[in-house]
Amino acid sequence: MSRDDETRRAWAVIDTGAVEANCGRLVDALSDGAELCAVVKADAYGHGAAPCAAAALRGGASRLAVAAAAEAEELRQHFPETPLFVMGALTESELGLALDAGAEVAVWRQGFRELCSRRAAERGEHVRAHVKHDSGMGRLGERDPEAVLDLARACAQDPHLELAGVWTHFATADERGDTFFGEQLDAFRHVAERVRELAPGCTVHAANSAATLREPGSHFDMVRCGIAIYGLDPFQEDPAAHGLRPAMELRSYVADVKRFPAGASAGYGRTWRAPADTWVGVLPVGYGDGVRRGLGNVGSVLIRGRRHPIAGTVSMDNITVDLGPETEVEPGDAGVLIGSQGDERIGAEEMAKALGTINYEITCAVSQRVPRAHGS
Question: Is there a contact between 229 and 56 (Cβ–Cβ < 8 Å)?
Fold first, then answer.
């Protein structure tokens, strides 16, 4: 380990060059004229919002999107001129925060449109509104096309609002071969065409990462990519198949190496017992850092370029790994929980499959206790 690494029990290394390259790859694949909006909500899916946003913009993204007003407020400090879009629901006070940040906002019902209009009038400003169509996701947005058009018309006619966009979100874009994705796309396309008649310059957008990679017909004027810009596969397979490079590595180190006789146990509940005499390594990282408890006895760690199974229950601050009957591993050796070492790699997708979840949750779960080191 380096001198800097020796001060850390666990840390995440974020390759911002990978974020930049991933955005460049996505931009190259877009339909003519479509823009890339980089989704950096939830602290850039655990990768660090400001550094990843900067990398995304270098890679060709032209806008940034978040879910919460506080996220927009934070980003505005770093990016005073970049268009920001808050996609999530906002309370009255959160709306004020979003407007202070100069963000564009989602409008999904008449009551919220009226609130936006009042706040804009009080501030002597125009609010840029993106009307949301619930084409099948079942969350925010009007499902009835006529209700969407009424809402869009009200925004277009309101002197305090600007109809900046119409948008939707796909429920099954990451499920290859399903038919519902096509149904949503067709439903939204018809609505978007009619909204364009009200505001020809408004931005039509629908595609998330999966749709962007799956169907060029979903690109419209702009795509909103999150998971793919961090080099993770929206289809939960291999990012390399899409030309994506994972940006995050999660690392720790071996704090101790201990000899276990056959039958000796490790961890809470004694869920693992040595099947024969073996060596066990102790790493000071656990579910308090984002290494989920469910990885006990099913996950792996890379040490000296080899996979070693997690032995026993993951604790809040420690894990134990079976090093085998003979080992060269020593205290101080680096351990990789997500990332590469030698010829071996543990991806967020692999970890997610072991837990029955998705790669999004893996990187978002890396806690704030874990420092992030950003660099190319």
Answer: yes
| 287 is an active site residue | no
Number of H helices, E strands in the chain: 11, 20
Under CATH, which number does the domain 16-236 receive? 3.20.20.10
Q: Which of 307, 309, 320 is nearest to 269 (CA)?
A: 320
Q: Where in the chain is the domain with CATH 3.20.20.10?
A: 16-236
Tell me which of 132, 268, 287, 360 is the catalytic residue.
268
d(CA 145, CA 166): 12
Give the homologous superfamily in CATH for domain 248-357.
Lyase, Ornithine Decarboxylase; Chain A, domain 1 (2.40.37.10)
Closest Cα to residue 299, out of 276, 283, 279? 283
CA separation for the pair 182, 136 (Å, rounded)? 11
Residues of the chain within CATH 2.40.37.10 domain(s) are 248-357
Give me the catalytic one of 41, 45, 230, 287.
41
State yes or no: is 268 an active-site residue: yes
The string of pLDDT tens digits covering residues 207-243 is 999 999 999 999 999 999 999 999 999 999 999 999 9
- Ranges of H-type helices in 101-198: 110-123, 145-157, 180-198
177-208 tens-digit pLDDT: 999 999 999 999 999 999 999 999 999 999 99
Task: Indicate the Cα dihedral angle 63, 243, 362, 365, nearest 10°.
Answer: -30
37 — phi, psi (to 5°)? -100, 120
Residue 220 tokens read as 């419209």
pTM exceeds 0.85: yes
Residues 36 and 61 sit within 8 Å (Cβ to Cβ): yes
pLDDT in tens, 334-368: 999 999 999 999 999 999 999 999 999 999 999 99
